Amino acid sequence: MDARSWPNDPGLLLLISLAGGPKHGHAMLLDVQRFAGVRLGPGTLYGALSRLEELGEVEAMPAEGRRRPYRLTDAGRRTLAGRLEGLRRAVDVGLERVAT
Amino acid sequence: MIRLLLRLYPAAWRRRYGDELAQLLAATGLSPATAWDVARGALRERGRAVRRHLQGEGTMVLGPAWRHPTAWALAALVVLAPTMGVVFVSIVAYQLGATALQPPMDAMLGVVDRWRVLDLALVAAPALALLAAAAPLLRVELRDRDGTRELALGVRLRALNLLIAVLALGVGVLLAGHILVESVLQLGP
Known about the structure:
The complex is a heterodimer. By secondary structure, chain A is mainly α. Chain A has 4 helices and 2 strands. Chain A is elongated, with a radius of gyration of 15 Å. In chain B, strands 1-2-3 form a 3-stranded antiparallel sheet. Chains A and B meet through α2 and α3 of A and α2 and α3 of B.
């Protein structure tokens, strides 16, 4: 997949990644790269993750050694659904206009 | 290197996410692009921390050098050392007439004349060293007290930092005097 087709928003990519189940930092990086073709830097990932945690959209789970998994909260799931819905509307309009 | 990069983050952020980020960096490897990404992330977190404090959340402490006064004093000395050496040897060679020192000094000053960046570094060093040595002596704290913001200024005296600050000031004054005299001589009568 062409990385340019994704919005430049690491927070959204992390929410999508965590919607598939709890993950720690490295697993999120690999997952985002797999489904979006976007290679997030570790600083970008933890910056976005700390903001999402502050907003209550993700939460930390008990640490596994030095790694700590994160999961999506109900609020995060609602935010993600709203944002994807917004994107879908934009995509639908774009596809309709391209086709005419 | 990873520890050094983590030091760029605000302490509170580092306490919460530092171990995890270090673990991730160890797993992914540290390329120049990754280091740049982490440094930018740290800068963003510093910006967020300052914005939060300015909005009245928590206590903001401005005094990054406060906790490591000796390290800052030694760093100041390292920055100052080349300029101090040049000024000292110049005085001995040209003012006190140690002719044996003049040829190597002439050669060295020739190099400095050709490389403007060296010249600038030597001239700027006393000011930088003064700042580095004096920085740990000051601390500004913006804190919440019963709903009102309060500014507290902390000043302390440390012999090593003061000594190096005075040394930097002395070298700076000597250098400025030398530059002034040279400029006047070049203008001529």
